[in-house]
Amino acid sequence: MAKKKVKSKKGSRIFGITSRLLMLVAAGFLVLSYGSMLVNPAKAWGMTLLGLMFVPLSVVNLLLLLWALKRLSRSFVIPLLALLPSFFFLGRYVQLSQDRITEPQDPTLKVISYNVGRFSLHDEDTGISGRSQCADSVFAMLRRQDPDIVCLQEFRISDVNKVRAYLDRQMRGYKADFYLFPASDGSAFGNVTLSRIPVKGKGKIKFEESANLAIYTDYEVYDRRFRVYNCHFQSYNISLPGILRGFLNADKAVMTETGSKMKRSIKRRPVQVDQVFSDIENCPVEAFVCGDFNDNPMSYSYHRMTKGRKDSFREAGSGFGATFAGLWPLLRIDYILIPERFNAIDHHTPRVDFSDHYPVITTVEL
Questions:
Q1: What's the predicted TM-score (pTM) here?
Q2: SS3 sequence of the chain
Q3: pLDDT by residue (tens digit) across 84-139?
């Protein structure tokens, strides 16, 4: 009998030590994910992966906290302390319903940012039979929204010589500014900014060894001048279904290639972000920053770009802010950031099935 008690105490001690170690590891990873905002991934690319894991790491620590409380274990303090800072960051992912301003005191501006995925989402599920019909569906949705400014990323057209005529036909009354990369088959893809307000200037910021870029347009309306950056930062260029198949089939070649692509994109993106940020710092007017950052709200990219700007989702959004359809509601990578003195009075991301991203739509009080 005594031996059984000794074994029981020994087993209980081992279980207690193991559970505390698990809590310490989970808490440590969560704390490191907070630091992912401050560390340049070009110097420590692994920090970006920890930032991507912020939500699941928070969930794991919450479950460990509840489990420790249920067992009346004093080790509950480990996940509790790790979770405390997360309450300051959860608003970047989800917002409670907010009071709407029914009568704006100042003129308003409606802005849309949308990665259209080269109009390639066409299948039986959506009822869309090809790129042309997908593009028609996208522009019909944009026209219904009646925006003042539209920033498109991964716009594609089959004939590079017909870009302006095509955009004039799809969005009558809007002026188009764009920069497209030509492809060998005569098509082209890139960023497009459409607006129905006076344009005062424009430019582009090309990224080295990349098919991603940023373009900017200067506007003047209601005696206010500002610039809108339309950004598409480095993509991962990976297929989630392909990764899953490689993992299930234990295909080392697929996993190695995926890891190399992620590492390469993670290291390139902060260089591009710093390039745009440097241009913003030298901008003579206030700047909006729109686009597909390919990075989450706990990232260096987001932290850098929000300096001097407000996140329209945090200002006026409600519910989940996720913009990537494939991992909804976990992944938010598309943003509209507005100058600090302006106010976002509405924000929504309609779940339309024309791309692997959802459009970000914001109304701003100037």
A1: 0.90
A2: CHHHHHHHHHHHHHHHHHHHHHHHHHHHHHHHHHHCCCCCCCCCCHHHHHHHCHHHHHHHHHHHHHHHHHCCCHHHHHHHHHHHHHHHCHHHCEECCCCCCCCCCCCEEEEEEEECHHHCCCCCCCCCCCHHHHHHHHHHHHHHHCCCEEEEEEEEECCHHHHHHHHHHHCCCCEEEEEEEECCCCCEEEEEEEECCCEEEEEEEECCCCCCEEEEEEEEECCEEEEEEEEECCCCCCCHHHHHHHHHCCCHHHHHHHHHHHHHHHHHHHHHHHHHHHHHHCCCCEEEEEEECCCCCCCHHHHHHCCCEEEHHHHHCCEECCCEHHHCCCCCCEEEEEECCCEEEEEECCCCCCCCECCEEEEEEC
A3: 999 999 999 999 876 655 577 779 999 999 999 999 876 545 455 578 899 999 99
Residue pair 335/327 in contact by the 8 Å Cβ criterion: no
**6-42 residue pLDDT tens:** 555 666 778 778 899 999 999 999 999 999 999 999 8
The predicted pLDDT at position 122 comes to 61
